[in-house]
Amino acid sequence: MKTVEELNMYNWTPGNGIPPIWKDEAVVLLATGPSLTQENVDLAMEYQKANKVKIIGCNDSYHMCSTTNIQYAADARWWAVHYEHVIKKGYDKLVGA
Predict the structure, then answer these.
(1) Cα(30)–Cα(16) distance, integer angstroms
(2) Beta bridge partners of 38
(3) 3-state DSSP helix/strand/coil percent for the chain, to nearest 5?
(4) Around Cβ 96, how many Cβ atoms within 10 Å?
(5) Which of 83, 81, 49 is nearest to 65 (CA)?
(6) Beta carbons within 8 Å of 81's beta carbon, 6+ residues apart
(7) Model pTM?
(8) How far are the Cα atoms of 1, 29, 48, 78 from residue 84, in angstroms, in the given order?
(9) What is the spatial order of strands in the sheet that 27-31 belongs to?
(10) Which of 17, 18, 47, 73 has most Cβ atoms within 10 angstroms of its Cβ?
(11) CA nearest 60: which of 84, 89, 82?
């Protein structure tokens, strides 16, 4: 299995810390779970299109939102399965831990 570095991804781990990416910007985190609906995602995308928010997608939320600024997953097994699909979407940044 390839490492985060080999996949040219950012590495957000406790030892590395999470670097500031946007200053004074509102951010929506789309995390998969039973409360995430397409209505929520569509609203976030509307605000994103109006340059009011940035969107971070977590794990499988990329299936619901094709415009996330960052796609995040901490599980190397998840990346092994989804990496090829995710990179085709052309996100600004891919992040693993």
Answers:
(1) 23
(2) none
(3) 30, 20, 50
(4) 21
(5) 49
(6) none
(7) 0.77
(8) 13, 22, 25, 11
(9) 10-11, 93-96, 70-73, 54-58, 27-31
(10) 73
(11) 82
CA contacts within 13 A on the Cβ side of 85:
11
Alpha-helix runs per DSSP H in the chain: 38-49, 76-87
The tokens for 94 are: 């891919």
With vertex at residue 24, the alpha carbon angle to CA 17 and CA 89, rounded to the nearest 5 degrees, is: 70
CB of 12 closer than 8 Å to CB of 72: yes
